[in-house]
Every structure is written in C-alpha cells, then in structure tokens.
Amino acid sequence: MAQDVFTRFGFEPIRTPVMEEADLFRRSVGESTDIVQKEMYEFEDRGHTRIALRPEGTAGVVRAFIENHLAHESAVRKFYYYGPMFRAERPQAGRMRQFHQIGLESLGSDSVRADTEIMQALAAFLNAAGIRGAEFQINCLGDPDDRKRYAGELRSYLERRIGDICETCRIRMDANVMRVLDCKNPSCRDVVRDAPKILESVKDAYRAELEVVLGVLAESGIKGRYNPTVVRGLDYYTRIVFEVTHPDLGSQDALAAGGRYDLLVKQLGGRATPAVGCALGMERLVMAMKAAGDPASGPRIVVVALGESAQQPGYRLLSQIRAEGFDSDMDFENRSLKAQLRRAEKCGARWCLILGDNEIQKQTVIIKDMTEGGGQNEIPAGDVLGHLRKVLQ
C-alpha cells in the first residue's frame, strides 16, 4: 500500500543500514536531544568505532544521499523507506524499544510546495489505510537567526515562571529551551500557553509559507491547523514543521511528524541542499486502524467453504480473488458456518463469499455484507469477480 501511494507521488525506495556511526546522529539529531542523551543504543565495534542502532531514518538517508552523489542524477530526489528503529525508552502503549517507521524525504527543492506534497502524500497513505480523523498541526520555526532571537525571548519569559515548570524543563532551558514547548506536564503546558509565540519572531517570508501550507491543506480537504507549540524534538528542523495527531491514540496521540531540514545536508558534509521529510510510526498506525475497526486492518474478503466437497472450489475462488489483487483469506479447517462467520467478523472482513453443496450444484456463490444491517445476495459463480471489482472500486 505504501509503495503504491508513494510511487504515485514520484517517490522512489531507499534502504539504509540499521547500524550507523554514532557520530552521524550526534551531528544531525543534536547532542542536547533526549535521543542522543538517553535513548540511543550505542556500542563500540571491533574496530573501536562508536556504532549506534538507528533511532530515526532521516540522518541515514542524508548520509547515503551525500556518499552516493545522488544529487548529481537529478535536481530533486524523493525517497520513501520503511524499517525498524531503536530507542532505549520505557515500553508503553505507542512507545517501544524496537519500533518501525515509514518515512518520506524530498531533497533539492526550496519551494513550500515540496512541504505540501509531503503532507498530501502522507494524507493519501492514511486515507488508503482507512484512517479517518487525523489532524495536521503546523508551525513555523523560521531560520537559525529567528530561532536564536526567539530562544532568548522564551528563556526570559520562563525565568519569570521558573517555579511553575518541571525539573526536566529547567534543565532544557539551558540545553534547548524550545523543548519546553513540547512538554506534556500539565503545569508546563499552562505556562507555555501564555509564552511568546515563535511565529512573532520569524521573517515575513516564512509566515507566508505557513499560510500557503494551511491553504493547500484546506483546498485538499485535509484537516489542518496552526499550533504554536509544535517544535519537534530534533535540532535539524527549520521553517515549516508539523505533527499528525489522531484522537484514538490517547496521550501518545502523534501518528506522524516531520518538517524542513535545509541545513542538514551541508552540516553532514554535502553541498547545501534544501530538504523536507516526515516519518510515520507503524505501530501507532496499527493502533489507529484497530481503534477505527477499519477493514483495512485485515482481509476485506473471506471465502467460507462448507463441507468437504466445497474445499477445492472454495480454494480455487480464493486464488482467483487474490490474483485480482484483493485482500482475502479462507478458513481451511472446514468448520461450521457460524464459526467461520465469527472468525471473519473478528478479523474485520467486509464481505464473505459462501459456498456449500447447494451453491456448487447451482454454480452460484452467496455474497454476505458483513456491515451492520448488511444483507446477502446469491449470484452466478462466474459473476463474482466482476461484482467484487464493482463494489471495491
């Protein structure tokens, strides 16, 4: 599904190693981030090189982009990837020590349209996965000069409210004061609510980009809004940043996130290259799909074969359905109609195709709609694929 959607938007696959030199992440993600200070799995290999299991995907893609001279092949390169990431976090719902991400990276375009393309591709993927209710929350961080100026204003404000913020945020004030904006502690959130907004410190051109992004999302029918507290936890972000949240994920409601990182390629030794990207957590995606009860989380079609004589015709029908590209399954244990329908309902099937001795004799198939109040129809066996194409279109 990811391949189909992202290829349609012009992205090509890229694979990077699970292990990289630890210095890559220190230089890109940032020394002061939680990832580098507390969460990165790091060790020394036989050659006495410090190695890390990748905690995120962007740094590895940028390294591959530089080392393989990929900018020489085209002015703009767009990649998608998926695979495991590793962070030494306390396991909880939506947070695991080994987790998986799907990512998009677009390198070479300075246009804000590259930002909106990333968001539209991500929204298209969520739609294909059956996810409804996700919201894009957008902010603008400006350039390094804007951030430095704003950091001073924010620090001055927080020093006046130092007794109201948590101990972790007091440490963050020295290391990376903007991380305070992202704190989930209720008292810190109250303090942040009245804090200066970074949008007031950024240049007019960057404010205009924020308006373009919000306008494109509205035109595309994508739910989005400005959120001044979205800052992202990695040091390489500039200009437009965003998070995608979903109400069914509880306190860990971030489904995906991303933004611009125009300085990172040069920072890692390449030629100055504007870039934007995002990553989506696959475990949280599955949580959202299960919460929605969406059929996309399981086979949409289940073949129900009743009796020994129906097993071979049923399996033949299953093979034909799969050859058409439809998600489908079949219970091979020859259980009762009630048991097979219960299993199909549990896995989220949208339709059941039922055939027993009577249907085989009449050369028909019963198509049962598994939605609440859905009925069933008996149609000629030769019309089944055409009917499925029609209802699944």
N- to C-terminal separation? 15 Å
The residue-averaged pLDDT reads 90
Number of strand segments: 16
- Outline type: elongated
- Domain tally: 2
Q: What is the percent of helical residues?
A: 25-40%
Give a short account of the largest sheet.
8 strands, mixed
CATH superfamily of the largest domain: Bira Bifunctional Protein, Domain 2
Spatial arrangement of strands, main beta sheet: 1-5-6-11-10-9-7-8
Number of helices: 15
Tell me the CATH topology of the largest domain. BirA Bifunctional Protein, domain 2
Low-confidence stretches: none
Question: What structural class do the secondary elements suggest?
Answer: alpha+beta
**Computed CA radius of gyration, to the nearest angstrom:** 25 Å
| Named CATH architecture of the largest domain | 2-Layer Sandwich
Beta content:
15-25%
CATH hierarchy, class of the largest domain: Alpha Beta
Could you explain how this protein is built, in words?
- By secondary structure, this protein is α+β, with helices and mostly antiparallel strands.
- The protein has two domains: 2-143 and 202-292, Bira Bifunctional Protein, Domain 2 (BirA Bifunctional Protein, domain 2); 298-392, 3-Layer(aba) Sandwich (Rossmann fold), CATH 3.40.50.
- Helix content is 38%, strand content 22%.
- The chain contains 15 helices and 16 strands.
- It has helices at 2-8, 22-28, 34-39, 58-67, 112-128, 144-160, 167-175, 186-193, 204-219, 264-267, 282-292, 311-323, 337-346, 357-362, 384-392; strands at 12-13, 19-21, 42-44, 50-53, 77-86, 98-107, 135-140, 224-226, 238-245, 254-260, 275-281, 301-305, 328-330, 351-355, 364-369, 376-380.
- The strands form three sheets. Strands 1-5-6-11-10-9-7-8 form an eight-stranded mixed beta sheet. It has a five-stranded mixed beta sheet with strand order 13-12-14-15-16, sandwiched between helices. A three-stranded antiparallel beta sheet has the order 2-4-3.
- Strand 9 and strand 10 (254-260) form a beta hairpin.
- Helix 5 (112-128) runs parallel beside helix 9.
- It is elongated and about 80 Å long.
- The mean pLDDT is 90.
